[in-house]
């Protein structure tokens, strides 16, 4: 993946990142601020504010709701899958423990979201 990747430590950090608040608003140089993400990879089991809450927040926010959200998680619980799609997830991808299967899942993610789909700002 050639696009820049930003990693947040927990759900609260993710929301601060998306809204450019707290630590992300303190950059003195405007060029250091991060751009609006073209896609969000979201783990459900984030510490603090969990991924379900982050997803819900993203999809009710007018500024953020059009950003595709791919849930990337170890949970294969049908209830989690259903809840994520109900809350507006664009894809649900299992994060396998087996390295080969995990690499295949990431390749699928890359092939679909970064090669097949036209994302905002990619043209």
Short description:
The protein contains four helices and three strands; from the N terminus they run H-E-H-E-H-E-H. With 123 residues, the protein is an alpha/beta fold.
Characterise the protein shown here.
The chain is of the alpha/beta class and 123 residues long. The chain has helices at 11-19, 51-60, 78-86, 99-116; strands spanning 40-42, 69-73, 91-94. A 3-stranded parallel beta sheet has the order 1-2-3, sandwiched between helices. Helix 1 runs parallel beside helix 2. The protein is globular and about 40 Å long. It starts with 10 loop residues before the first helix and ends in a 7-residue tail after the last helix.
Which features would summarize this protein structure in a list?
123 residues, alpha/beta, 3-stranded parallel beta sheet, 4 helices
Structural class: alpha/beta
Q: Largest sheet, described in full?
A: 3 strands, parallel
Helix content: 25-40%
Count of alpha/pi helices: 4
Distance between the termini: 17 Å
| Whole-angstrom Rg | 15 Å
* Proportion of strand residues: 5-15%
Name the average pLDDT.
86
**How many strands?**
3
SSE sequence, one letter per element: HEHEHEH
Instruction: Provide the low-confidence segments as ranges.
Output: none
Order of adjacent strands in the largest pleated sheet: 1-2-3
Shape: globular
